[in-house]
Amino acid sequence: MKKNTKGISVKKNENFSEWFSEIVQKAELADLRYNVKGFLVFQPWSVLSMEKMYDYLEKILKKKGHNPYFFPTLIPESNLKKESTHVKGFAPEVFWVSEGSDTKLSERLALRPTSETAFYQMFALWIRSYKDLPFRTYQRANVFRYDTKATRPFLRSREFHWIETHCVFATEEDAMKQVGEDIETSKEVLHDIYGLPFMIFERPAWDKFPGASRTFAADVLNPDGKVIQQPSTHLISQEFSKAFNVSFRDRDGKEKYAFMTCYGPSISRIFASVVITHGDDKGLRFPWASAPKHVTIVPIENNEELTKKAETLKREIGDFAEVVIDLDWNKTPGEKFNYWEMKGIPVRIDLGMKELKSKKLSAFRRDLNKKEIIREKELMKYLKKVSVESGENLRKEADKTFSGKIKNAKNISEMKKILEEGGIARCGFCSVEKEGVKCAEVVEKEVGAEVRGTLLDEKTRAEKCVICGKKSEKVVYVAKAY
Amino acid sequence: MKKNTKGISVKKNENFSEWFSEIVQKAELADLRYNVKGFLVFQPWSVLSMEKMYDYLEKILKKKGHNPYFFPTLIPESNLKKESTHVKGFAPEVFWVSEGSDTKLSERLALRPTSETAFYQMFALWIRSYKDLPFRTYQRANVFRYDTKATRPFLRSREFHWIETHCVFATEEDAMKQVGEDIETSKEVLHDIYGLPFMIFERPAWDKFPGASRTFAADVLNPDGKVIQQPSTHLISQEFSKAFNVSFRDRDGKEKYAFMTCYGPSISRIFASVVITHGDDKGLRFPWASAPKHVTIVPIENNEELTKKAETLKREIGDFAEVVIDLDWNKTPGEKFNYWEMKGIPVRIDLGMKELKSKKLSAFRRDLNKKEIIREKELMKYLKKVSVESGENLRKEADKTFSGKIKNAKNISEMKKILEEGGIARCGFCSVEKEGVKCAEVVEKEVGAEVRGTLLDEKTRAEKCVICGKKSEKVVYVAKAY
Description:
The structure is a homodimer.
Chain A: H1 16-26, E1 30-31, E2 41-42, H2 44-63, E3 67-68, E4 74-76, H3 77-80, H4 84-90, E5 95-100, E6 103-111, H5 116-126, E7 135-144, E8 159-169, H6 172-193, E9 198-202, E10 212-221, E11 226-236, H7 238-244, E12 247-249, E13 255-257, E14 259-263, H8 267-278, E15 295-299, H9 304-317, E16 323-325, H10 333-343, E17 347-351, H11 353-358, E18 360-365, E19 370-375, H12 379-402, E20 406-408, H13 412-420, E21 424-429, H14 437-447, E22 450-453, E23 474-481
Parallel strand pairs in A: 3-7, 11-23, 15-16, 15-17, 20-21
Antiparallel strand pairs in A: 1-2, 4-6, 5-6, 7-8, 8-14, 9-10, 10-11, 11-14, 12-13, 17-18, 18-19, 21-23, 22-23
């Protein structure tokens, strides 16, 4: 496949939507021409990065006591129907398998939209006593949603790649501790490693996961002012353990229903946020830990000595960094520079006869868009430094962009203004229980935005609901969303 | 979940089928009680091992120039129908998605039984010139087959976990080189790392992959004398590149159809062969590289000093080996020993006050079923030694069991006898092209066995076909198969 040597034609902050479409195509992240609506082909440059995300997350989950499973992709319709809120929430989004070869199946099978109803029936078989608890699982899986909203590569597609954890506890308190741990995991991975600033909201009653009693989710803010929901974690309602009979004999000899939690980081969506948050007008930028490859070596002329030198350097740093040598002689060095900047590789080393003789290397680092001259024998030390600094720099830059985006709105016109400027509005709200839904509908209709929820550790106070003017019970955050 | 402390009740060589069923259940490899026929829940002890297989294979494939993709799970029916042999072969095994929510889809979508017809339509878009070739891809995926044969955990189930590679070349010669490389990969992974002895056969014309012009597959022999097909690699027929218009402009300026290959190692099935080949009457045995965990430390009494010591040892070896400390005080030390032997952990360290004082450790290694006393400060050195030797010992033992299983059959009664004794029969055969199918049917009917194919480097000669007595064109191998 011919590498696309043309750069991004629009500025990220002027036309974010077009910028994102171009970068998906030109950096070869995904091909949208697959002939099933809402499905796409993930190409190596995104897959290599997503594989690293899977690795990190799975390692962290294992360390925190989760055991890995592979559950079937197919879930019988009767399982989905066992818990009424859940089926109401998911049934409109299910792809159904109804035939095997030419035979109509006796029961329709769902392509899993999420796997609670698969895991819970096994939990009922596996869990007997309080000694079996806590019971923590996860699986790496792809899930399917027949989503009728407009699909968008990585952000919203009909098949996506995620990890789902499902855990069982003896008490609600233990379950809520797990929810707290999941939120910590999101912070460790999304913010500390991938440099994504976000806020964790408890969602209002009308926006909970179908079947959850409480839902917490991370929202990342896009440059176009819309938020993207990242990992959410849920305290599952007891209706679920009752429906699936997930119970245990407690210390006191009594049979009790268990408390469950689930957590669902979507790898393809986290990747989208890395692209969106760190990318600039030249193309992608990756924190070292999520970069598909780390270093490219570009010999600037077709010359055996330079190629050999590139191979030697690659061998020397090969244990520490993933290296590509660019030997495409159909391109000028300038075209290659642009190409690798668009691809977001953290370090590019330009290799000419001058560098060979002087034993000094010219390194371009994408986090700072800056060329640095380093001594050849210090290359390894230099890369180790950049591997730490590049992530830090991108994170700091993102944190800086994000900060100041949250502003107080005392009325609906202030809210509108904040959202138009690409921010998140903070305001008083009558209720985040069912009673508040009417005011939320006003927000949606008049501002085209959503009440994203409340903070667990809210410090701001507000007297009145920004919509109805009644006494404000909660401080909520309002944003446009994907 | 309560750990099952009971051992395996039958001997592997006396009742292999029951032995395998018991080990799947008692070592908690998979739970077969999931309520969709032919689908199962893979539990942590198998998943941890399969994850390592994925890692190894993916690393090797990347090193050999394959790039990773995630393709959609769903393939439109029209894609499957484009190549007639392929659709004939797979249509009877397809699960069909025909509804999304309450809407009938305009076209049925197949749950991928294999992904040629998904990859090839994209190859047609991506490949333009000889400069784009060779083009090597792979994906880690689960595939689905509505298989009407009896399912069997890990060996044959309706959803299984594999890697599929799909490659494109300018010439048939290049494509055949890839087939050779795939065979090498099978050897590196299956034999050298997982210690599985096998033979590579070119399949007869009537047993080729639907749509292939040549099929090569690895057969591993089970203790019950049946062979299991392991990775197969295929030279795809040109009918396929024509049907999908996978063509390129060659150096001479002419537009030509490309040559394709594919290779499909099934991770869940390789795991089955590791279980079957290395297991003994006590339970599982794992080569270090495929062990779910490497070391268990068993404090033999509930005593803080011992638990602390176990933690210290775990920390010391934790970078090199994956360690479990068994603190289940509901079990006697003897029950724990049996449990970990059944689970096949390579090394068990029994820790009592005697060991603590003497600064010597008692280590049980599962490859040799032997206790060894080692000095505490030499633990790391010891584990490094066992990590190499355990794989070697299991491989040698397996090779020894396998050798001598192949015997020459001059007639059908000799063939029967060889197969009854759990061997593979070698004999002359009239033809492995279409003309030979009649004799193959006789073999199937009278001996209940299959002609598995020919060796590429066959050295044996045979005058006559073992069935029809005509001049023998080929030496073939006959075995019972799953």
